[in-house]
Each structure stands twice: as C-alpha cells, then as structure tokens.
C-alpha cells in the first residue's frame, strides 16, 4: 500500500471522497485497523478512558501517549497516524506545545499531532507548524475542557458559540492545519463549516455533511456496553461475544475439557 499523507486527505476532500478514521492505542488493534483499509488512525487521548479507565481525558500524560503512539506506529503501514497532544502538554505556552509535539514526533514516529481549541491556541499551532509538524484541529465538544463545559452534551447550539466555531475553523485553515475534527455539534453547522473551508472536516456526532467520520474503535466494535450516544453505530457486539468466549473457557478448564489430547505435547 501507498502511505496516506496529509496531502492525500486534502485531495480526498477535493475529489469528494469521504475520509475514514478510527482510534487505536496498541499494536494488535492498529494492525487490524490498518489492514482493513482505514485512512487515518488517531491515537486519541480517549486512551485515558478506554485503556486506563479514567473518567476524563485529563489524566493521561505525554509519556503515556508516546507509549501508545509508538505501539501503533509499529503496526500501521498504510494509514496516516495522528496523535493527540494530551491535556497539560500544550496549553501553557507555544514553546511547551512545540516541545511536546517534537517529543511525540521523535519518540513515536507518528505523522501529525491534534490539539483541542481555536483562537486561544493559535500561537502554539503556528509554532508547531513552523517546525514542519502537521497539525489537525479539534473544535466543538473538546473533552479536555469538560470541567468548563460541565457536561458532554451537544455544543454550539447557540448562535454565539456557532459563530465562534465557524471563525475558529476558518482560522485553523488559514494557519495551515491540514484537517480538523468537529465533535458533537449540530449537523447543519458542521456541514456549513465543511463547505466554508477547503481542508477536510472529520466529524464525530457531527452528521453526514462533513468530509469524513471518526469513532473510537472500542465503541464501534461494541466492547463497551455502557456508552450509547446517538451518534454511535455499533458494528459488532464484542462485549457479548467476548463474555461468552471467556465464560466457555472457564467452563472448559473447570470441566477438564481443555486441554484435550490434541492440545498438548
Ligand atoms: O481522543 C479521541 O478519541 C478523539 C476523537 C473522539 C476525535 O479525540
Ligand atoms: Na481526543
């Protein structure tokens, strides 16, 4: 396979081809996701929830993100690999943002970084881009700001917030971001943003009028049966399948069925 690049994504948008993106946090999963033909793998800070069991994305560290990212990089030969800058690794000043991004690029081998926010972090985005590191934006519901929002409900339903979001999206394009994620905003607004800028807009809970879709892999595989937002389509029910398989293993061990004659030396 030819490697997907930031350029490929911009061409996909220009050609009207939708972009597929999923998260991965480890080697084995990333190998499957990459082989299945995904365009972009996001090593999301959702690893904080999905991998580590934290309630929010705030606790995950830069070192932990680099560990996840390097595992994914070793697995994927076709997908573009984007890494989230975790909370606390870029908010205090542009120099810190650049330092964190350089660490991610050097120590994981990933291809791009993603940061949450618009005009507030424009100097940081500029600094990272000036170093030659591609940046993906992230607007709408930005989970690192959950304690400011108070809830994980739909963002930008009011005009003022919708207007700022559209302005931020235009700013991210102007700064030189190669794409941006829009999370949990009204479909109409997301479509308007996608039509207003030439870089790809990848949505999660942002409707079908955008240029691509992203989901958390564990959610779309149905490994987590406690999380059922309306935007989530489950392609498997791995929670049930795995529970059944593991239960069968327990039964087989207890009943002396496993291992059989053929399963030993
Ligand atoms: O961390 C993550 O998984 C994300 C996606 C939901 C866009 O940022
Ligand atoms: Na994230």
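^ structure tokens above, recovered residues below v
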């Amino acid at each position: 396979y030819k490697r997907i690049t930031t350029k490929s994504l911009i061409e996909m948008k220009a050609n009207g081809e939708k972009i597929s993106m999923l998260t991965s946090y480890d080697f084995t999963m990333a190998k499957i996701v990459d082989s299945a033909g995904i365009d972009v793998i996001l090593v999301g800070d959702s690893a904080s929830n999905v991998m580590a069991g934290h309630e929010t994305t705030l606790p995950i560290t830069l070192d932990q993100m680099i560990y996840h990212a390097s595992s994914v990089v070793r697995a994927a030969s076709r997908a573009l690999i984007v890494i989230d800058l975790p909370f606390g690794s870029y908010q205090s000043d542009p120099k810190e943002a650049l330092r964190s991004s350089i660490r991610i690029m050097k120590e994981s081998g990933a291809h791009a970084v993603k940061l949450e926010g618009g005009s507030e972090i424009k100097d940081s985005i500029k600094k990272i881009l000036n170093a030659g590191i591609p940046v993906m934006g992230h607007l709408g519901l930005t989970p690192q700001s959950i304690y400011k929002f108070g809830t994980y409900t739909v963002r930008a339903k009011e005009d003022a917030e919708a207007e700022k979001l559209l302005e931020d999206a235009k700013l991210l394009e102007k700064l030189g971001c190669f794409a941006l994620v829009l999370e949990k905003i009204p479909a109409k607004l997301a479509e308007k943003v996608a039509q207003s800028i030439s870089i790809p807009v990848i949505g999660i809970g942002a409707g079908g009028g955008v240029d691509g879709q992203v989901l958390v892999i564990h959610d779309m595989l149905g490994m987590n049966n406690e999380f059922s937002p309306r935007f989530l389509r489950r392609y498997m029910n791995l929670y049930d399948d795995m529970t059944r398989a593991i239960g069968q293993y327990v039964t087989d061990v207890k009943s002396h069925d496993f291992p059989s004659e053929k399963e030993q030396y």
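The CA atoms of residues 146 and 212 lie 24 Å apart.
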